[in-house]
Write a structure and sequence with these properties.
Elements (H helix, E strand, L loop, with lengths): L5 E8 L6 H13 L4 E6 L15 H12 L5 E3 L12 H11 L3 E8 H6 L6 H7 L1 E5 L6 H15 L3 E3 L9 H9 L10 H10 L5
Bound molecules: adenosine-5'-triphosphate and nicotinate mononucleotide (NCN).
Length: about 210
C-alpha cells in the first residue's frame, strides 16, 4: 500500500543532457520541502523544442537520467512522458499523476527561465491545480523580479509558487553540448557515468 500524504517533487526536463543544475535542484527541493521522493521526468516530445536534430535520442536521454540519479535513493526515474503520442504537456502528465496517486501532493520544480514563460504553457492554471510550483533562480535573475513574477502567476493562475533556496547555478545543457562538440572538458558539470555514456555513444560530437 502506498503511504498516505506523500510529497513528491517532479523534476521535468528535456535533459539533453541532464547536468548538475538539475540534480542540485532535485536535492534542494527534497531537503527544503521535506519531500519523500523526487521523480525525474524526461520530457517526451516537448512542443517548445521542435528542432532537436543533432541531439540525443529519447532512449539516450532516459539512460543519461538513469545513470545520473542511480546513487541517490530518493531520486526516481519516471518515463511516463516517453510513452505519450504527440506532444507532451505538463498539465496532462500532472493530472494523470494526481489521478493515479490521489493522496500524493506534487511539487513541480522549474528554473527562473521556465517561470518567465510559464503563463504561455498549455493550460498553466491546470498545472497549478495539480501541483505546487517550486522555482529556482537562474541566469542571475534579480530576486525582486523573480518574486514579483511568482506573485503575478500565483494570482493570475490561482497557484502556489514557492522559492527554492538555491544559488545561481551557471550551467546549461546547450552550453555543455557546445563544449562537448568543441572537445572541452565537462568533468564535474555532468556525473562521470553520464560523461562515459556520451563518449561511448558518441553523442553531441558534431
Ligand atoms: N542551472 C540551472 N539553474 C536553475 N534551473 C535550471 C538549471 N538548468 C536547468 N534548469 C531548469 O530545469 C528544467 C529543465 O531544464 P532543461 O532540461 O531544459 O535544461 P537546460 O539546461 O535549460 O537546457 P537547454 O540549455 O538546452 O535549454 C527547466 O525548468 C530549467 O529552468
Ligand atoms: O506543458 C507545456 O506547455 C510546457 C511548456 C514548456 C515546458 N514544459 C515542461 O517544463 C519542463 C522543463 O522544460 P525544458 O524545456 O526547460 O526542458 C519539462 O517537464 C517540460 O515538459 C511544459
Amino acid at each position: 500500500m502506498e503511504k498516505k500524504n506523500r510529497k513528491i517533487g517532479i523534476m521535468g526536463g528535456t535533459f539533453d543532457p541532464i547536468h548538475i543544475g538539475h540534480l542540485i535542484l532535485g536535492e534542494a527541493a527534497y531537503e527544503q520541502f521535506g519531500l519523500d521522493e523526487v521523480w525525474f521526468l524526461p520530457a517526451g516530445n516537448p512542443p517548445h523544442k521542435r528542432n532537436r536534430a543533432g541531439r540525443a535520442k529519447d532512449a539516450q536521454r532516459v539512460e543519461m537520467v538513469r545513470r545520473a540519479i542511480a546513487s541517490n535513493p530518493h531520486f526516481v526515474l519516471c518515463t511516463k512522458e516517453m510513452k505519450d503520442e504527440g506532444y507532451t504537456y505538463s498539465y496532462r502528465t500532472l493530472e494523470a499523476m494526481r489521478k493515479e496517486h490521489p493522496c500524493t501532493e506534487f511539487y513541480f520544480i522549474i528554473g527562473a527561465d521556465s517561470l518567465f514563460y510559464f503563463d504561455e504553457w498549455k493550460n498553466p492554471e491546470r498545472i497549478c491545480a495539480a501541483a505546487k510550483i517550486l522555482v529556482a533562480t537562474r541566469d542571475r535573475a534579480k530576486e525582486k523580479e523573480l518574486l514579483a513574477c511568482m506573485e503575478r502567476n500565483a494570482k493570475k493562475l490561482h497557484g502556489t509558487f514557492l522559492k527554492l533556496d538555491t544559488p545561481n547555478l551557471d550551467v546549461s545543457s546547450h552550453e555543455l553540448r557546445e563544449w562537448i562538440r568543441e572537445g572541452k572538458s565537462v568533468k564535474y558539470y555532468l556525473p562521470d557515468s553520464v560523461i562515459s555514456y556520451i563518449q561511448e555513444q558518441k553523442i553531441y560530437q558534431d
